[in-house]
Amino acid sequence: MLEDGGADASSDGIADAGPDYVLHDAVSLDVNTAICDGAVMVTTNAAWVDHTTGTDMTGCGLQTEPCQSIGYALVHTTSTTIYVGGPDTYEENLVLGAGYANYTLQGGWIVDDAGNFSQACANNLAIIQGPADGGSATVDIHGASNVVLRLLTIRSKVNGAPGTGESVYAVRVVDTANVVVDNDTLLAQYGGDGVNGAGGGTGSGCNTTSPTTGTPAPGATGSAGNAGTFDPASGYQPVFAGDGGVGNQGTHNPGQSGASGTCGTCGYE
Fold first, then answer.
1. Considering only Cβ atoms within 10 Å of each terminal Cβ, which end of the chain, N or C, has fewer?
2. Residue 173 CB: number of other CB atoms within 10 A?
3. Are 249 and 203 in contact (CB under 8 A)?
4. What torsion, rounded to 10 degrees, do the Cα atoms 164, 168, 173, 179 define?
5. Residue 164's pLDDT is what?
6. Share in percent of the chain as helix, strand, coil (round to 5)
7. Element (H, E) at 71
8. 172 assigned to some structural domain
9. Could you say which residues of the chain have pLDDT below 50?
10. Strands 21-23 and 185-187
């Protein structure tokens, strides 16, 4: 259920009193951002990331020495706020388990050629794209409460694994409380094709009084897989294709009966 969670007050420079909408009492959606609302940016205990000018190495995360990937900053720094520079695309799968409670991932930063970060109220600067050979969810929040995703575009991988019925997610939230999705664009792309039907059983030959046996016919083709289904409690579920049908009865050509012999003419010397 989607409910109004609080009014914005961006016109006078005062931060939101609360998120605009609350989804299932676990995920909040805010149509305005902290930057748009004039809130002061938190720079303490923050790590900076920029794909173009940064380097994944020990000690990265300073604004003047950003890390190159979001995942590296999450694992190798102690910062609970990760600022993501752009415009750029980060091909990553991010998993936030219980140890990532109270973390914020935030885009809305333009990085110039000299590596300087400047604020921008846009969510299309930092794009997190699921890798083609990666997991089902680009951002998988599993048990990390009070996570904030702000000013980001998050896209699932383009296709689920073919022949598996795999569902894909931009953001998947499991067993988690108070996740805030603040002015993000989320795009789930194409799930995997359904499993192919199994081949049918082999048809049996047909025998008569003749010893000739027919040739077995091939099994029927399996039915195509249907689209996956969605259930609020369990998420997207793949629907698998049916088995192939049993093969048809084999055919045969029975042997012909032999013709009766005729008696030849008898002659005398």
1. C
2. 23
3. yes
4. 180
5. 79
6. 5, 30, 65
7. helix 70-76
8. yes
9. 1-25, 31, 33, 38-40, 208
10. unpaired
Looking at the domain assignment, is residue 202 inside a domain?
Answer: no
Let me know if residue 96 belongs to a domain: yes
Check: pTM over 0.85? Answer yes or no.
Answer: no
Strand partners, 2: 23
Nearest to 93 by CA among 133, 123, 134: 134
The model's pLDDT over 93-109, given as tens digits with 9 standing for 90+, comes to: 999 999 999 999 999 99
**Burial letters 39-52, b for 16+ CB under 10 A, else e:** eeeeeeebbbbbbe
In the chain, the number of structural domains is 1
Could you tell me if residue 123 is inside a domain? yes
User: 82: domain range?
Assistant: 2-187
- pLDDT, tens digit (0-9, with 9 covering 90-100), for 169-204: 999 999 998 999 999 999 998 887 776 666 666 665
Do the beta carbons of residue 102 and residue 146 sit within 8 Å? yes
| 70 three-state secondary structure | helix
